[in-house]
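Weekly puzzle thread! Below is a chain. First person to post its structure in token form gets bragging rights.
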Amino acid sequence: MSNTRIAFIGAGNMAASLIGGLRAKGLDAAQIRASDPGDETRARVSAEHGIETFADNAQAIDGADVIVLAVKPQAMKSVCQALRPSLKPGQLVVSIAAGITCASMNNWLGEQPIVRCMPNTPALLRQGVSGLFATAQVSAEQRQQAEELLSAVGLALWLETEQQLDAVTAVSGSGPAYFFLLVEAMTAAGEKLGLPREIAAQLTAQTALGAAHMVVSSDVDAAELRRRVTSPAGTTEAAIKSFQAGGFEALVEKALGAAAHRSAEMAEQLGQ
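Winning reply:
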């Protein structure tokens, strides 16, 4: 990325996180530009990261090697159609908008090399994970550029088919909310068991953090880690059996299936 020029269309939280990650990895501020309709957003991003910002998208992409589309899915069609006359052949387009297919973007932009990504909100802390899919027009060098871009805020994983992005959306894109829900429920349960709410919340949050670190750093899978902390006839086994008796695994499968279905449904609706 040392000589790559990157333009962000949209300078909201996710774009700002990517810009911050790139700057932290040593990319020069002169290589990054961003456009956004909000005066305050442009001023904040410029002040925090030292980059040039624009109100006009066409100005931002002039001379860029990589164009990152970081706008809301509902705005993608109009943004892409307005950008089309200003695009140069071969400019890589990286989309981080959920539910917008490569076919739709090609229809709106013309035939450009496109990498479609599904990041998640922990990217704001550079602890994210992203699924990436590249169209056939994307070169090996451009794949590397896209991977380094998303790696600036966490783990970047390539997918074989675009359809797999619906599953990525269900597992990791929406995934943080599932853990937040579990934290909420455990905190509430701890309070009902007699703990002060603040202590229940701290116990739950730190337990979630520690468990996540164990999963990431361990050389065994989550199932084995669970078995290791589940003593026969102990307290953990009692809780696990209660979860399973309530259909925990089937409920998780159903929930993720609903998210994946909605992702595919959104792609059809927004791509028209």
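Puzzle host: Confirmed. Bonus trivia for everyone else. The mean pLDDT is 95.
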